[in-house]
Automatic annotation (TrEMBL), chain A:
The chain crosses the membrane at residues 67-85, 124-146, 214-232, 464-484. Pfam families: ResB. GO terms for cellular component: membrane. It is a multi-pass membrane protein. This is Cytochrome c biogenesis protein ResB. Keywords: Cytochrome c-type biogenesis, Membrane, Transmembrane, Transmembrane helix. It comes from the Bacteria. Residues 65-516 form the ResB-like domain. Residues 525-545 are annotated as: Disordered. It is found in: Membrane. Its main location: membrane. Residues 535-545 have a biased composition (Basic and acidic residues). InterPro entries: Cyt_c_bgen_Ccs1/CcsB/ResB, ResB-like_domain.
TrEMBL record, chain B:
Residues 38-176 form the Thioredoxin domain. InterPro entries: AhpC/TSA, Thioredoxin-like_sf, Thioredoxin_domain, Thioredoxin_ResA/DsbE_sf. It comes from Peribacillus psychrosaccharolyticus. It is found in: Cell envelope. Its main location: other. One of its GO terms (cellular component) is cell envelope. GO terms for molecular function: antioxidant activity; oxidoreductase activity. It comes from the Bacteria. This is Thiol-disulfide oxidoreductase ResA. Keywords: Cytochrome c-type biogenesis, Disulfide bond, Redox-active center, Signal-anchor, Transmembrane. One of its GO terms (biological process) is cytochrome complex assembly.
Length: 545, 176
């Protein structure tokens, strides 16, 4: 790990290709090449220099551009695989994920599930890949920006002849009469910054374009940090709230601080005669005009324990429509989904089966039924059992599948003056059973009332500002690196000749035009593009520079 | 040499910071689902519920006694199986400082009352209207039972139907 001492006396770090001071070629293997590799100004990338401890080895691993590109390829491939089948969060909750993937997609679905791709974006290995990419960006940038900064700020005006000769743009003019002060002025007119030393010139412009890629990386790193911030509690909320008309519920993700009441859910469709939509309506049946939830937002007042009655303080009434969320305290509630016409109440008439005479009607609240309903004097109905989501189990006993009244069934006992012991009737939708013998009376179905439920998305994202800053810096970096070029022109007087060399990181045509302007009318000949003269020169290089 | 040492320290620090960020992200990602779930060893969150007879049950008032906290629903068969066993053991342990509290998952009062009457349950049954207690405990499958000792610490979380022997054993374990 020895430092390299150049003939000019400057001591360069190990791995340096061009002397930091005079530009003499230090790498013996490149002695025969016509052009030199100007990447990183021929400076030593820090990672290449030593490989001693485990820390250095890890550092070198992440510093490698090759590794970085592989990480990008892997992240892209993994991200693509995650889109082949829907992720677990988007599949219906009617069965387990294992069953769903196999039943819907066959052996491929089973494999997809077994490999864990149904939860790909939150898998440890995907997050690790992204994190490795972030590490690669950080370390590769640090590893290059430090030596690059060093060599760009340390540049000497006078460079060694080997350096000059091996530049892509190079020319020698058989004259020493040229007025360098005139050249300097012409260069400055082209907006070059010119430095002068012993009659030699170094003209430079657009150096800041060299920092473009690193600014770009910084933006990406900030973007990744913003993504990471989502995992910090309180920074990011993404929940679904299902709320029926008339219900008041705690808003998930707010730690029980906010409550919402659904006053009304409205679904409007376009009129059949609407001239803009009549064609579409004919084809599809209906065209939705508006999905809207009229809600009231409440805040919990005072501390209560879970289960205790909460005091609610009204904050505001609001109308939530698609793309018009209710916003409060960094939370936003979006209209996402709805369920129309959920059963709410059911009405019955108590009638005599023969005479069809009615003895009063009753309405059962399907979410909170009463144990007893009093009708006309002497007539009453008791609700013995209630099955909100009824079915028969394998033994033939009525059971309920859930508490949601999708298919309500009841066991009623009807008390009437002539049947004081009561008659029992099993009532479900479209069926009535009389398990204890023929009845005189029956409960005739008299109507239902339904209500709608709104599905609202609860969002909070405190990381957006960082994502915007990261994205903005990323774009600045792209612009900086794409629309500006770092152009340099060296002019030296050597043994009665004028030597001119030029270098740019891209757009060689632009550099040549600059040089043309500068030497117009002087004795200096136009320099040659040495890359173009080479028989093996790639055509693309001329275009890209 | 000094320069190299400094560089090594810098690299170690940067790598350590990046590694920490990675570890934190992975940790946060894997605990985000279980954050709201009460696990063995946690302190049982306090709550207050009114049972079917109108008595208020505040968990913190039971300090000094063991609590067998059961979450259930009328439509859940496994819940139904263990109810008679729980009732037997309740009779045995209620005077020895172990109480049972059965919390229903926000069903209608009628459905719960009929159920309690049908099974002749003697221990207090409360309905978690609004499911706030359910959310505080992060109950997932039903039935789930939290075995809470006299200090208010969760010593076990049991999901699925329990045998009478298992109920007896768990109630014994939290006897003050």
């Amino acid at each position: 790990m020895n430092d390299i001492k150049c003939e000019c006396g400057h001591v360069n770090p190990y791995g340096t290709i061009l002397c930091e001071k005079c530009g003499r070629l230090l790498d013996e293997t490149q002695k025969d090449s016509k052009l030199i590799d100007m990447r990183y100004e021929g400076g030593a990338r820090r990672s290449q220099t030593y490989n001693k401890t485990i820390v250095d080895k890890i550092w070198n691993f992440f510093s490698s551009v090759k590794i970085g590109i592989w990480l990008i390829v892997l992240v892209l491939a993994a991200s693509a695989i995650g889109t082949i089948l829907p992720q677990e969060m988007y599949i219906p909750k009617t069965m387990t994920a294992a069953e769903y993937y196999e039943e819907t997609y066959g052996w491929f679905g089973k494999l997809y599930y077994l490999l864990g791709f149904h939860n790909l974006y939150s898998s440890w290995w995907y997050l690790a890949l992204i994190a490795f990419l972030g590490m690669s960006l950080t370390i590769a940038s640090i590893d290059r920006i430090v030596p690059l900064y060093r060599s760009l700020t340390k540049q000497k005006v006078e460079r060694h002849e080997g350096f000059m000769k091996r530049q892509r743009i190079f020319g020698v003019s058989e004259t020493d009469q040229t007025d360098t002060q005139d050249l300097k002025q012409r260069l400055e007119k082209q907006r070059y910054k010119v430095r002068e030393e012993n009659g030699s010139l170094l003209a430079e412009k657009g150096r800041f374009a060299r920092w473009g890629p690193y600014v770009n990386h910084l933006g990406l790193i900030l973007f990744l940090l913003g993504g990471m911030l989502r995992f910090v509690p309180g920074m990011y909320v993404d929940e679904i709230l299902w709320i029926r008309e008339g219900e008041t519920k705690a808003i998930p993700g707010t730690d029980g601080k906010y409550f919402l009441k659904n006053d009304e859910f409205i679904l409007e469709v376009y009129d059949k005669d609407d001239k803009d939509f009549s064609e579409a309506i004919e084809r599809t049946g209906t065209v939705a005009k508006n999905y809207q939830s009229n809600v009231t937002l409440y805040e919990k007042d005072g501390e209560t324990l879970p289960g205790e009655e909460v005091n609610l303080k009204k904050i505001k009434d609001a109308q939530i429509k698609v793309n018009i969320p209710l916003k409060h305290d960094h939370y936003a509630l979006y209209q996402m989904d709805y369920k129309k016409d959920e059963l709410n109440t059911m009405s019955f008439d108590l009638i005599n089966k023969k005479t069809e005479e009615s003895f009063g009607s009753m309405t059962v609240d399907l979410n909170d039924p009463k144990p007893k309903y009093d009708l006309k004097e002497g007539y009453s109905v008791e609700l013995e059992s209630y099955f909100p989501d009824f079915e028969f189990d394998d033994k033939g006993t009525p059971i309920t599948k859930s508490k949601i009244p999708d298919n309500p069934a009841f066991v009623f006992t009807m008390y009437t003056p002539d049947k004081p012991k009561g008659e029992t009737s099993f009532v479900a939708i479209k069926q009535t059973l009389e398990p204890l013998g023929e009845n005189t009376y029956k409960l005739a179905f008299a109507g239902i009332e339904t209500r709608n439920a709104a599905g609202l998305a609860v969002r909070k994202d405190m990381t957006l500002w960082l994502l915007f800053i990261g994205g903005g810096i990323f774009m600045i970096g792209v612009i900086q690196g794409s629309y500006w070029n770092h152009r340099r022109i060296w002019i030296q007087r050597r043994n009665g000749q004028m030597w001119l060399a030029g270098h740019t990181n891209k757009n060689w045509h632009g550099l040549k035009r600059d040089i043309e302007q500068v030497i117009k009318g002087t004795d200096i000949e136009e320099p040659v593009d040495q890359a173009q003269d080479e028989p093996s020169s790639k055509k693309g290089e001329v275009l890209n520079g | 040499m000094n320069k190299k040492k400094r560089r090594l320290i810098m690299r170690t620090i940067i790598l350590a910071v990046l590694a920490l960020a990675l570890v934190y992200t992975l940790y946060a990602n894997f605990t985000k689902d279980s954050n709201q779930t009460i696990k063995k060893g946690d302190t049982a969150p306090d709550f207050a519920l009114v049972d079917l007879d109108g008595n208020k049950h505040k968990l913190s008032d039971y300090k000094g006694q063991g609590i067998f906290l059961n979450f259930w629903a009328t439509w859940c068969k496994p819940c139904e199986y263990e109810m008679p066993y729980m009732d037997n053991q309740y009779q045995h342990y209620k005077d020895q400082g172990v109480q049972i509290l059965a919390v229903n998952v926000d069903e209608s009062t009628l459905a719960v009352e009929k159920f309690v009457k049908r099974h002749n349950l003697t221990f207090p049954v409360a309905i978690d209207k609004g499911s706030q207690v359910l959310a505080a405990y992060g109950v997932d499958p039903l039935p789930t039972t939290f075995v809470i000792d006299k200090e208010g610490k969760v010593v076990d979380v049991l999901s699925g139907s329990l045998s009478e022997a298992a109920i007896q054993q768990h109630m014994e374990s939290i006897k003050p």
